[in-house]
From TrEMBL:
It holds the Pfam family GGDEF. It comes from the Bacteria. It comes from Noviherbaspirillum galbum. Gene3D superfamilies: 3.30.70.270, PAS domain. One of its GO terms (molecular function) is diguanylate cyclase activity. Residues 132-178 form the PAS domain. Its EC number is 2.7.7.65. This is diguanylate cyclase. One of its GO terms (cellular component) is plasma membrane. SMART domains: GGDEF, PAS. One of its GO terms (biological process) is cell adhesion involved in single-species biofilm formation. It catalyses: 2 GTP = 3',3'-c-di-GMP + 2 diphosphate. It is an enzyme of class 2 (transferase). Residues 292-425 form the GGDEF domain.
Length: 433
């Protein structure tokens, strides 16, 4: 056989074995050649089993094919692409709708090529999917105390439904494509914390937190936020998560009293050492996975014994409560506050470097200094000293961080009180104010 004959034979074999229907036609639709798959696909549309012209065979489902060809004046190219044809397979006694996809190519002035594919299964799957989506949307639209949404691997909101608008008051354009902490009160999250929760959901199956959320008009509501991964086999960037925000304002009090009993200091209401060390441990665990700054400030009221001695113990208590209130006002929600004991307090600042922590500590010192407390008609001026440290230079746990901040606090007291010192890896210490 010549090489040309070999090639021709290979082409015929290809046509014969191809898993899609291939039909070679003349410009008026006359069939020159067709493979077995196309014969099978077109069979339900033939009249009396005759299959000589494709345009005639498809006239019931695509009546304009002849006109499309006539209107296509380019020397070659795609006349139509994946045209969806719907027809009845005609099984006696059964209404059996099938779907074909048709692409028509102009090869040259005398020949066309039709590519046919049975897409019935695909269309059925699409129908089921869209029915499920409509069903899910109907459920979501009816929900009033939950907001359910899909978020991507960067924590950006990907879809919108009425439940989100109803619970939060935000509009679609203000939420789509935004980080999910848009619903949280300012300071209740950081970019690191945003992705930490996605990772936690991956590792543990879910991530559940009670968070202070905000509506579009700024009003706060206490909510439980649940993130669960929506499993897919694709790459990490294709991962999706479901976020459910549930208004639990009614359960807040019960939850809070349980929490307070175990985790809060009885006098100031601030988290106690147990709560603080648990949160600090979690932050250091996260830091091991994704390195980041963690800073710590230790505050100590100055000459507090004198305040007790001069104004009495209840006045001393009022000063400690005032100090706690100002800490709540001064630091972000994402910062962990704690009464370590006596007149010593701590603030753990996630994703915060030494300079930013120093600035926060100094701001707080000035605030305390500038506003005395009034108790029982007495104006009590007091001050605090502070020690600041960060997790640079091989600090990998909270104990070491406390040791450093404590060393800086000691220095602040030694240098005369009412000032902030920082632990510095080169000079060991630096005085700020
Ligand atoms: N009112 C009140 N006083 C407390 C409480 N806990 C500890 N104290 C008092 O805080 C005082 C701490 O005194 P010191 O440790 O000598 O420290 P200081 O007087 O603040 O002096 P410097 O820290 O060196 O500035 C003690 O008198 C404690 O009794 C509390 O819950 N309420």
């Amino acid at each position: 056989m010549t090489r040309l004959e070999d090639e021709y034979e290979a082409l015929i074999q290809f046509l014969y074995l191809a898993p899609v229907g291939l039909v070679q036609l003349e410009h008026d639709g006359g069939i020159m050649m067709l493979n077995p798959v196309s014969a099978q696909l077109l069979m339900p549309m033939t009249q009396n089993g005759e299959l000589t012209n494709l345009f005639d065979a498809l006239s019931g489902v695509a009546p304009d094919l002849r006109q499309r060809c006539a209107a296509f004046t380019a020397p070659h190219g795609r006349i139509c692409d994946a045209l969806r044809l719907q027809f009845s397979a005609g099984t006696p006694g059964k209404k059996d709708t099938q779907f074909l996809s048709l692409s028509l190519l102009k090869l040259d002035d005398s020949r066309l090529m039709a590519v046919l594919e049975d897409i019935t299964g695909q269309v059925r799957r699409e129908e089921i999917l869209s029915r499920n989506k409509a069903w899910l949307n109907a459920i979501l639209a009816g929900i009033s105390d939950y907001a359910v949404m899909s978020i991507n691997s960067e924590g950006l909101v990907e879809d919108w439904n009425d439940s989100i608008g109803r619970l939060t008051g935000w509009g679609e354009g203000e939420i789509l494509g935004q980080p999910y902490d848009r619903f949280f009160m300012p300071g209740a999250s950081t970019p690191d914390a945003l992705t930490d929760r996605l990772r936690e959901a991956e590792d543990c199956g879910w991530s559940l937190r009670e968070v202070q959320c905000r509506r579009h008009d700024g009003t706060p509501f206490f909510a439980s936020t649940l993130i669960v991964p929506v499993h897919s086999a694709g790459p990490t960037s294709d991962r999706r998560y479901c976020l459910v925000i549930r208004n639990i304002a009614d359960k807040k009090e019960a939850l809070e009293s349980q929490f307070k009993a175990a985790y809060c200091d009885y006098l100031t209401g601030l988290p106690n050492r147990r709560a603080f060390f648990e949160e600090a441990q979690r932050e250091f665990d996260r830091m091991q996975i994704v390195p980041r700054h963690i800073s710590l400030i230790l505050f100590d009221a100055d000459n507090f014994k004198r305040i007790n001695d001069r104004y009495g113990h209840p006045a001393g208590d009022a000063v400690l409560c005032d100090l706690a209130d100002r800490m709540r006002q001064s630091f972000r929600m994402v910062d962990s506050l704690c009464r370590m004991g006596g007149e010593e307090f701590a603030v753990l600042l996630p994703s915060t470097d030494l300079d930013a922590a120093l600035a926060g500590a100094e701001r707080f010192r000035q605030l305390v200094e500038s506003q005395p407390v009034t108790f029982d008609g007495e104006v009590i001026a007091y001050s605090v000293s502070g020690g600041v440290a960060t997790n640079e230079a091989g600090c990998i746990d909270i104990d070491e961080l406390i040791k450093r901040a404590d060393r800086a606090l000691y220095e602040a007291k030694q240098k005369g009180r009412n000032r902030i010192c920082a632990w510095d890896q080169r000079t060991e210490l630096k005085v700020v104010a």
